[in-house]
Batch of 3 targets.
Target 1
Amino acid sequence: MGYFKRLVTPDDEEAFVDGCRELYKQEWEKALVHLSHAEHIPDGAFLAGMASMKLERFEEACRYLASAAERSEQLNALLGKYGLTIELNMPITVLVAEYIRPDKHGALLALTEANQRLERYDSAVKCLYELHKNDPDDVVVRLSLVEILMQQYPSDRAVDRQVVRLCKGIENESTCNTARTHAIQGSCSQKGLKCWTLPGRRSQKR
């Protein structure tokens, strides 16, 4: 942003643009400093949440991402104004990764991860159910639900039946095959199952 452009640009938008510049350079700390001054803008809150996730500041991430999700109809407005496109890769399971975009789906998916990292599993499941309601066919969301339900309710027969329903039609995903087998056998073992891998672990893009 040039000198004269900055003279007529609101401070919060200037901070937002500076934050985006640092995001593109993967300077997460610097990005968060700028974006925290633009958190009242939905796009600013979303990107501040994603920068917080990269820095493993999950409490901050929850606050920013919840704010962005609540105002999802305004997401991507400021990014679009400046002609910016941002996608951030986030592991979903040990086999699947997802590109997170500035929309309600992306905000809720990232919020799920932040809640899990804080061991707020009820809040994570609530986010996933909302995502599943919005798009019942989303395989990524279904797999995430399967894993967290099996982790948190390993001996609940009602959950076993729900796991089987969620896995229906997902024939080639090893996580779901494992979940289906354990659920049918009535032994929901946690072995080999982890919803959302740590940053930097190996994952397979989907």
Target 2
Amino acid sequence: MHPLIVMAAIAAGMAGGTETSARDFLDAYGRGDEAKVLSMVSPRDISVYGSDAAETATGLSGFMRMFEDDQKLWGGKARFGPMTHVSSVHAGTLSTLFFDADFTLGDRTVPIRFATVWRKEQGVWKLVQSSNVVPTTGQSAADLLKPH
């Protein structure tokens, strides 16, 4: 088989792996499935940045505090929509995955933009870094530079 075909197949498998892992993680996080969520984060390195400036955590205990706080608010009823604007880069056992997904709780839906880093540990993709923001609308440089 041609080396480029082999590399494309490997990259496609890696992308599917991290995208599948991210989807599984979002679903488990939204429904409050602590065991599943914990199985998907690196016990060695986990750093997360939430959408509020005060929401930062490094280490498993900090991550769990954020998870528990979210579940107190959501009661396992949060849902994340399909992943869109997906971009990923892979190098060895590391993979980045950036994407947007709508977050719904009750009758309120807001867009969320995620930037995540995954590491393959013992054959399984584990989340090691995550940052999310609620993107603005009409506040891009191009929008702000438009004459009024």
Target 3
Amino acid sequence: MEKENCQQTLSQMPKALASVLNSVLTSTSSLPNCETGPNQNDRAITIGKPPSAIVLNGLRDIAREASTGTEVKDENLLALLRQHFGSRLVTRQKTQEIYDGDGGYDWRISGYEIDLDGLDNQEMPFFDALEFFNKPAKPEAIAGCFAKMRTALLRRNETEQDIEILIDTMVDLCRPYPLDVILSVTRQWLKEKKFFPIPKEFIALCEEKILLRRALLKTFEECRNPLMASKREAKQIKADPRLGIHFKALEKKDWLPCHFEAWIAEAEKMADMYASNGNNTKADEWKAEGEQRRATWQS
């Protein structure tokens, strides 16, 4: 009897399996096609995760030092990026062989190739930080560096007028470089050289120090998702109707250098506005507010 029941059960299994398989195929075919659906371009693909507090604090520390003229070290910046992105971020050095150098054959880094698999909306603070690290110095700060070298270094038979023209040329050519890069090259030149630099010599040293930052910013900019970036701007930025400038609507604990910079600039512009209208009391109040905000950022 048991044998007959077992045989009967075995004979029914193929039909049961076919029924289950048909049910699975039917339910699967009713699902939307994720690859060819009409809304494929509108789907938000999560690539990464928000940066940790440790990484954000590290970026802020580097930015504070850069704003005071301390050079941004490539190895420190890369360490923070790799701490977050891991194997998603790949950097390769491009080298150039030199045969006519002072010591004969040599090589130098001529650039970087950066690979990143994408930049999610919640990873955009890294793009903000790289923009800040690549921000050009103000012309008056550049002129101050060359004025210092003009006083401390020897000159090659140039007249005072020649030096004035040379400094103006140098300031114009150095506009694309951040302040920490120009200050670092200035200190290096004062330590190692005795003559005032010519443009080619000074620019070459600036280029060496900016190569990685520039390559990182270019890659991160290319990896931004345009749809996510527009949503981010709409959500996080609001306009100040008094000044017509933009501020990021974030909690202050999440601010990056660019946010503090806009916050400080607001107070400075308000002070200038009241001063131009003859309201010195309000101008002094906003000036004090600006100094307080700058102290908050540097603390």
